[in-house]
Amino acid sequence: MARRVVRTPTKVVVDLDDRKATILKAVVVEHIETAQPVGSSAVAASADLDVSSATVRSEMVALEREGYLAQPHTSAGRIPTDKGYRYFVDHLQSGVLGSVQQQQVKEFFAGVRARSKRCWNRPRRC
């Protein structure tokens, strides 16, 4: 049987300018919070930008062309694509948790660990 080799081209990641990065971050954060498409007026009001919603809309169109955002239908706002989320995680997210968040993560994994031990020791009760 022949072995199939799949080769993928090297990824080229282009850094966004500050305005586009700020708009993308605002869209990702708003979409995570609401699970709804995000419009330009919401971004213009929430982001640290001193531009009109028309300018934000123009930049969102450019982000859509570059593959960072998608528009589910004509009259909707934009939602992040996989590429948009990846850029957010790699470039825009601070990655630093506060003390309360650190404690929540510790408690969560302590609970997971305890449940896993119970399952390993008593498989019928899982």
Annotation keywords:
126 residues, mainly alpha, Arc Repressor Mutant, subunit A, two-stranded antiparallel sheet, 5 helices, 2 strands, 56% helix, elongated
What this model shows, in words?
The structure is a single chain. With 126 residues, the protein is mainly alpha-helical. The protein has 5 helices and 2 strands; from the N terminus they run H-H-H-E-E-H-H. The chain has helices spanning 18-34, 40-46, 53-65, 82-92, 99-121; strands at residues 69-70, 79-80. A two-stranded antiparallel ribbon has the order 1-2. Strand 1 (69-70) and strand 2 (79-80) form a beta hairpin. The protein is elongated and about 60 Å long. The model is unreliable at 1-12 (pLDDT under 50).
CATH architecture of the largest domain: Orthogonal Bundle
Count of distinct strands: 2
SS-based structural class?
mainly alpha
Distance from first to last alpha carbon: 42 Å
What is the arithmetic mean of pLDDT? 81
Q: Look at the structure and name the CATH superfamily of the largest domain.
A: Winged helix-like DNA-binding domain superfamily/Winged helix DNA-binding domain
Unreliable stretches (pLDDT < 50, length at least 5) are 1-12
CATH topology of the largest domain: Arc Repressor Mutant, subunit A
Radius of gyration: 21 Å
Give the neighbour order of strands across the main sheet: 1-2
The total tally of domains equals: 2
Tally of helical runs:
5
Shape call: elongated
Succession of helices and strands: HHHEEHH
**Which bin fits the share of residues in helices?**
55-70%
Major sheet size, sense and barrel closure = 2 strands, antiparallel
CATH class of the largest domain: Mainly Alpha
What is the percentage of strand-forming residues?
Answer: under 5%
